[in-house]
């Protein structure tokens, strides 16, 4: 399904093109050699093609164009299945935003909703979803809460795009489903585990995981690392979980790891390696460990939050915009020293 992100990457063609939007409602994007992009619908009426202009992109976004094209008559004649809608939702709303584990997030809608994939989307009921979530709650309560959240996002997206008229899960909440409250993970690496990490072979994952610890970055951000993102001692992550770039000062050890580099790996493969080798911690625990070690080294909470790239409250973000790089550089240098004192024989 054609998305705004994909349209931004289109280059001006040598001749006018009509690109299908991937729906079954006759929606197309007309791309002119001049760079103009216009949404149109094409349908056969009385044996002839009828073309209707909806509006120009980007004023009319892909989502709103899809909603306009999905009239009640069209939706009834060409209803999408649950599985087809999931694929479109993944490409437009999950993959661009969930940097570290988009496929794991998608699994809640594919693996855990396997029985709904071929069903018409507008025939999925609240009872269907409740049954699936309750089955998940019986074995994995924390995952059931995450599953509920992503299903609610999915159906809200479907309704906004005109794929369904009513949202079958609008009133569902973890509390209404009696899902136990999620227990936050508190795992941190001990001194012995840090030493074991430093003994881990550089390939395939040792160098990458050490870099994650010394920068306190998310493993999904480190996976996407490219040498061109580094200027001096500053690594700029182009896209992070909060949707904004983030600049991280590199300590000498982190800079050396980055210069050596590592092959691109998937989050799933790293997680599977940790499980298969009997490692008791998970990649995300490195962020918690880094924050804890910085605090023990005397770094203030505000600086640690800046290193972690946690978004402050809206008013603080609007009115307080200090340059945190010097404090972040000092914090990560202290972390480097603290870790070296533990892992160096």
For the largest beta sheet, what order do the strands appear in spatially? 1-2-3-4
CATH architecture of the largest domain: Orthogonal Bundle
SS content category: alpha+beta
Total discrete domains = 3
The low-confidence parts are 72-78
Strand content: 5-15%
What is the helix content?
40-55%
CATH topology of the largest domain: hpI Integrase, Chain A
What's the average pLDDT?
A: 85
Q: Total number of β-strand segments?
A: 7
Q: What is the alpha-carbon Rg in Å?
A: 24 Å
Secondary structure tally, helices: 16
Q: What does the overall shape look like? A: globular
Major beta sheet, specifics? 4 strands, antiparallel
How far do the termini sit from each other?
A: 55 Å
Task: List the helices and strands in order.
Answer: HEEEEHHHHHHHHHEEEHHHHHH
CATH superfamily of the largest domain: Intergrase catalytic core
Oligomer: single chain
CATH class of the largest domain: Mainly Alpha
Description:
- By secondary structure, this protein is an alpha+beta fold.
- Residues 72-78 have low confidence and may be disordered.
- Helix 6 packs antiparallel against helix 7 and helix 9 packs antiparallel against helix 11.
- Strands 1-2-3-4 form a four-stranded antiparallel sheet, covered by helices on one side.
- A hairpin with a 2-residue loop joins strand 3 (37-45) and strand 4.
- The protein has 16 helices and seven strands.
Give the secondary structure arrangement, pairings included.
Blueprint: H1 4-8, E1 17-20, E2 27-31, E3 37-45, E4 48-57, H2 62-69, H3 72-77, H4 82-94, H5 102-110, H6 126-139, H7 141-160, H8 191-199, H9 202-215, H10 219-223, E5 230-231, E6 234-237, E7 246-249, H11 252-260, H12 267-276, H13 285-296, H14 301-308, H15 314-319, H16 325-343
């Amino acid at each position: 399904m054609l998305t705004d992100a994909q349209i931004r990457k289109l280059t001006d063609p040598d001749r006018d093109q009509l690109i299908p939007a991937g729906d079954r409602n006759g929606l197309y994007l007309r791309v002119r050699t001049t760079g103009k992009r216009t949404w149109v619908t094409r349908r056969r009426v009385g044996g002839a093609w009828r073309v209707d202009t909806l509006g120009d992109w980007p004023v009319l976004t892909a989502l709103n164009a899809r909603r306009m094209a999905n009239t009640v008559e069209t939706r009834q004649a060409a209803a999408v299945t649950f599985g087809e809608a999931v694929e479109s939702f993944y490409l437009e709303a999950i993959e661009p935003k969930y940097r570290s584990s988009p496929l794991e997030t998608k699994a809640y809608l594919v693996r855990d909703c396997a029985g709904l994939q071929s069903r018409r989307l507008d025939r999925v009921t609240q009872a269907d979803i409740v049954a699936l979530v309750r089955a998940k709650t019986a074995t994995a309560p924390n995952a059931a809460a995450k599953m509920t959240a992503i299903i609610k996002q999915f159906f809200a997206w479907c309704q906004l795009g005109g794929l369904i008229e009513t949202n079958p899960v609008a009133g569902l909440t973890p509390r209404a489903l009696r899902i136990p409250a999620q227990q936050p993970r508190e795992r941190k690496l001990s001194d012995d585990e840090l030493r074991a990490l430093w003994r881990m072979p550089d390939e395939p994952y040792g160098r990458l995981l050490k870099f994650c610890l010394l920068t306190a970055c998310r493993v999904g951000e480190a996976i996407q690392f490219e040498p061109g993102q580094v200027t001096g001692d500053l690594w700029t992550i182009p896209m992070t979980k909060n949707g904004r770039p983030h600049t991280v000062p590199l300590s000498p050890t982190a800079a050396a790891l980055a210069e050596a580099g590592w092959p691109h790996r998937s989050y799933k493969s790293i997680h599977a390696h940790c499980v298969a080798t009997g490692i008791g911690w998970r990649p995300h625990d490195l962020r918690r460990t880094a924050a804890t070690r910085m605090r023990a080294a005397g770094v203030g909470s505000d600086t640690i939050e800046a290193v972690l790239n946690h978004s402050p409250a809206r008013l603080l973000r609007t009115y307080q915009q200090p340059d945190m790089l010097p404090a972040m550089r000092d914090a990560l240098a202290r972390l480097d020293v603290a870790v070296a004192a533990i892992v160096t024989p």
